[in-house]
Amino acid sequence: MASLRDFDRRWIFLIMAVIVVGLNVTGGGGRLPVSEYVHNYYDTIEALPEGSIVMLSADFDPASAAELLPAYTATIHHLFTKKLNIVNVATWPAAPPYTVSEFGRIAPQYGAEYGESWVALGFLPGDDVAMGNIGQSLASAYPKDDVDETPYGDLPLLERVGDNMDGIDLLITMSAGYPGILEWIAQVGGRYEVPILAATTAVQTPDLFAFYPSQCAGFLGAATGATQYLQLVDEATGGAVEKERLVNQKRMAVQSGAHLFIILLIIVGNLIYFIGRRGA
Amino acid sequence: MTLCSTLALVLHLALATGGVIAPKPAPQAADDTSGAQAAWDQLDAIKGEGADGELTGEGLSAWVDTEKVPTLMAIVVFGLLMFVYQRKAKAGQEISIRRIAGLDAMDEAIGRATEMGRPVLYVPGIDEIKEIQTIYSMMILRHVARKTAEFGTDLIVPVKDSIVLTFAEEAVKAGCMDAGRPDAFVKDNVRYLSNEQFAYCAGVAGIMAREKPAANIMLGMFFAESLILAESGFMTGAIQVAGTAKQHQLPFFVAACDYTIIGEEYFAVTAYLTREPNLLATIRTGDFTKWIGITLLIMGVVLATKAVGAEGITWADVFLRLAGK
Amino acid sequence: MKREIPILLTVLSGLLVTLAFFTRGENVAAGIETHWSKAVNAELLQWALIFFSVAFILGIANLVRISLKQIQGGGADAFYKTVMLIALFGYLGVGLGEYHGWWSFAGEGEQPMKLWIYDKLFIPLQATMFSLLAFYIASAAFRAFRARSLESTLLLVAGAIVMLGQVPVGDQITDGYASRWLAFLMVYVNGAGQKAIIIGATLGVLATGLRIVLGIERSYLSE
Questions:
Q1: Minimum distance, in Å, between the CA of residue C78 and any CA atom of chain A
Q2: How far away is chain A from the Cα of B143, in angstroms, using its nearest Cα?
Q3: pLDDT tens, position by position, A240-279
Q4: Are residues B77 and B203 in the same domain?
C-alpha cells in the first residue's frame, strides 16, 4: 500500500499526457447544450442596433489563449455580422498581437474598414488604473491609435465615440485574470453604467456568479462556454467559425477524458487512504 | 480608489442580494399630496434634482455625485466604528481573536528551516503594491524577516514587480532591525525575477528546486501560478503555508499546502501576530459591520419576499411597510 | 522626515482620490463643470502610470546585478543567468532597433523579428507553463483530495460534479443530470459562498485601506 501511495508522480503526468495527446488525435466532439449565461452573452449582442459601438478589451495572453482566443474570434465575427463597430483596447501587454492577427484576418471578410468600423488602440499599462483612465477619458488614455499612430480625433469611429464611455454601448472583455472582468466592473461598469459581457478562463468563472446578471449581463465560462457560443455564432453566420467550432468541440472531448482521469485519481487516492487507515 | 470601489461593492452585494435596491418611483400626479411624495420632493431639492431625476445644477448635486452618498455614509460609519473600537481597545478592553492555525504554523515552519539549516522562501504574490493584499504581505514579511533574523536563517524573497522590490527590501531590512540584527539583511536575497507571470513562476519554481528552502510561505495575491508553485514546493518536501483573499485560488492552496490562511483571515494576520490594540480594533469593526450587513440582508430578503407580486415597490414603500404604515 | 513625508503623501493622495470618487464630472445640460478633484485624480493616475513604467528600471537593475554576481561566481546557475541576460538585452535590442528603423532582421513582406520571437518562442513557452496545471492538478488530486471529514467529503463530491458537469461526457454518463447539478451548485451554493467571502475579504480590505489612508497603519514603511 505504501508503494502505491508514494509511487513516482511522473507516471500520473505520463498517463495524463497520453490521454490528452491521444484524444487530440482520435477524439471528435458533439454539440453541447447552450447554457443560460452563454445565451445571455449572445442575446445582448444581438439586441444592439446596427452601428452601435462596442469596446472589446483583450485582457489575456498566450497562456490563456487556448481558452479565450476562440471566444475572441467568435465575438469579432458576431459583431461584424451584426454590423457593429469595434474599439479595441488591451490591458495585458501580450494581447495586442492577437488583435492584429485576428482583425487582419476577419475584418476583410466583412468589408470592415479600419477607422470606420473598427480601431485598435493597443495596450495601456497600469492594470485597473488604466481601466479607470479609459473610463474617465478615452482620448487622454489613448492620444494615438496602435496601428499607425493616427491622432485620436482623426479616426471617424473615435470621433463618434467622443471622449468618454457615453459613446460606448457595450463593453466586452476577454478576461484571463487580473486585470479583467472584476476590475472592469469596479472601474467602468458601476461608474459609467455600461453593460458588460465577459469571456473568462475556467478558474475565474466561479467568481462571476456573484456579479451575474446585474453587473455582468452574460459570460462565456472557459472552453465550455466558448464552444457553446461558437455553435451559436456558427449558425448565425452560416459557418464562418466552423473550423474553430470543430476544434473546440474536439477540445471538449479531450477535456472530458482529462476530467474523468482526475476523478479516477481522486477515487483511487481515497481508496488507498481508507484501506491504509483500516490497516493501521 | 480601491477603498471606495470595495465599499460600493460590499454595499451593492448586500443590498442587491437582499433585494433592497429598487428604482425610485415614477413621479406622482400633480395633485398627489401624500406625505411620501412630499418627502421625495424635499429629497430631490436637497439633491438638486428635478421631479424626473434630471440635474438642476443646484444643491448638493452641483459637485457631489448623489448616487454615491450611501457609500460615503457607509465609509463614515465604518470609520467612526473603527475609532470607537480603537478607543476601547486602548482603554484596555480585551479584544479576543480566535486561533488561526495557519499563522501559528508560520513560526513552526521557520523553526523547522532553522533546524535543517535551509532557507525560508517568502513569495509575496504577483500583484503590484497598490493591491492591498500586497501591502499586507509586506507587513507580514517584516514579521517573518524578524523571526528569520532572530533564528539566523536565510530568507529569500523573489518578487514580480519592481516597486514591490523596493518595499520588500525595506520590509526585510526593518524586520532585521526589529530583531536587533541589521547584519542579517542580505540584499541579494530580495530578488526581482520577471514582470511576466509565468516567467516569474518558473523562476520561483527554480529557486525551490535548486536552493531547496525548508519552508515556503506564500502570502498575497495569486493567480494561475498558485498550484504550480504549491506543487513545486511540495515536491521539494518543504513545509508550506499559503494565504490569499483571492477566492478562486484558495482551493489550490487548500489542496496542495500544509496550512492555508483563508479569505479575511489573511487581513487579520498582523493583528494576530502583534496583538496591537489599533489593529485588533479594526478586526472588531469588520465583525460588527458584518452583523449590519447580515441584518440588512435578512431584512431585504424578508421584505422582498413579502413584496413578491406587488408592483412599483420602492425604498420608501419598503420602509413604510416595515414601520407598519 | 524620511518616514513622515511618505505618510503625508499617502494620506493626501488617498484623501484626494477618495474625494474625486464622490464628486461629479461634467454635465453640460445641467451647467455643471467637472470638479477640480477629478482633474487632480486624472493627473495622479497619469503619474502612477509613469511610476509603473520607470520602476521597470529598478527591477532590471536588481536582476542584472544579482545575475552578474552569480555568473562571476560560476555556480550551477551561471549558464541560465547568461541565457536570461542575453534574452533580456537581445529582445530589447531587436525591438528598439526595429521600432526606430536602425536595423531589420526580416525580409520584405516578412513578419518583424520581434513578432517572430513572440509567436515562435514566447507563445509556446507561456502555453507550456500554463499547461503544467493539467499535470499538477492530477497529481494534487491523487495525493491531497481526501475524504477525511464531512466538509472535505462535500468538497470532493462538489468538485466531482463540477468536473463532470463541465464536459459533455458528464451528461452522457448521468443522463443529463450533471450539467443541472452543476448549474445548481454554481448559481446557489457557489454564488452565495462567493458573495460571503467577497464581503468578508472586502471589509478586511476596507479596514486596511482606511488605516493606510488615515496614516494609522505605517508598518509597511521602514524606520
A1: 28
A2: 28
A3: 999 999 999 999 999 999 999 999 999 998 998 888 888 7
A4: no
pLDDT tens digits, one per residue of B157-209? 999 988 899 899 999 999 999 999 999 999 889 999 988 888 899 999 999 99
All residues of chain C having their beta carbon less than 8 Å from the beta carbon of residue B130 are: 48
Domains of chain A with bracketed CATH: 2-26+257-279 (no CATH), 36-240 (3.40.50)
As a whole number, the mean pLDDT across chain C is: 84
C-alpha C152/C-alpha C154 separation (Å) is: 5
Start-to-end Cα distance in chain B: 40
Decide which of C105 and B39 is more confident.
C105
Q: Report the pLDDT averaged over residues B293-312.
A: 77
Domains in chain B: how many in total? 2
Q: Treating both helix axes as pointing N-terminal to C-terminal, what angle do C4-22 and C36-73 enclose, rounded to 10 degrees?
A: 130
CA-based nearest distance C50→chain B, Å: 12
Q: Which residue of A has its CA nearest to B67?
A: A191
Residue A218's pLDDT band, with cuts at 50, 70 and 90, is very high
3-state secondary structure B57-90: CCHHHHCECHHHHHHHHHHHHHHHHHHHHHHHHH
C115 vs A contacts (CB less than 8 Å): 97
pLDDT tens readout for residues B240-295? 999 998 877 888 888 889 999 887 788 888 788 878 888 888 888 888 988 998 89
Residue B28: which domain range? 2-93+278-322
Let me know: does A142 contact A96? Beta carbons within 8 Å.
Answer: no
Q: Tell me: the pLDDT tens digits for B218-227?
A: 999 998 889 8
Same domain, B109 and B248: yes
What ipTM does this complex have? 0.79
The interface residues of chain B toward chain C in range 127-156, judged by CB-CB distance below 8 A, are: 128, 130, 132-133, 135-136, 138-139, 142
- Domain shared by B136 and B268, yes or no: yes
Measured between alpha carbons, how far is B243 from B221 in angstroms, rounded to an integer? Answer: 9
Q: Are residues B174 and B311 in the same domain?
A: no
Interface probe with C: pick from B167, B235, B267, most Cβ of C within 10 Å: B267
Distance, first Cα to last Cα, chain C: 10
Residue A17 confidence (pLDDT):
93
Q: Are residues B235 and B116 in the same domain?
A: yes
Residues B28 and B112 in one domain: no
Residues B226 and B284 placed together within one structural domain of the fold: no
Å between C97 CA and nearest CA of chain B? 22
C53 vs A64: CB contact, 8 Å cut-off?
no
> Cβ separation of A137 and C190 shorter than 8 Å?
no
Give the integer Cα–Cα distance in Å for B19 and B296.
10
Report the residue from A128, A203, A210 with minimal CB separation from B224. A203
Looking at the fold, whether B196 and B246 belong to one and the same domain comes out as: yes
Kindly report the pTM of this predicted structure: 0.78
Q: Which pLDDT does position A183 carry in this prediction? A: 92
Contact between A263 and C145 using a beta-carbon 8 Å cutoff: no
- Per DSSP, the three-state class of B121 is strand
B248 lies within 8 A of chain A by CB: yes
CB contact under 8 A, B290 and C200: yes
Q: Of B54, A149, B125, which Cα lies nearest the Cα of C28?
A: B54
Preceding peptide of A33 cis, ω within 30°: no
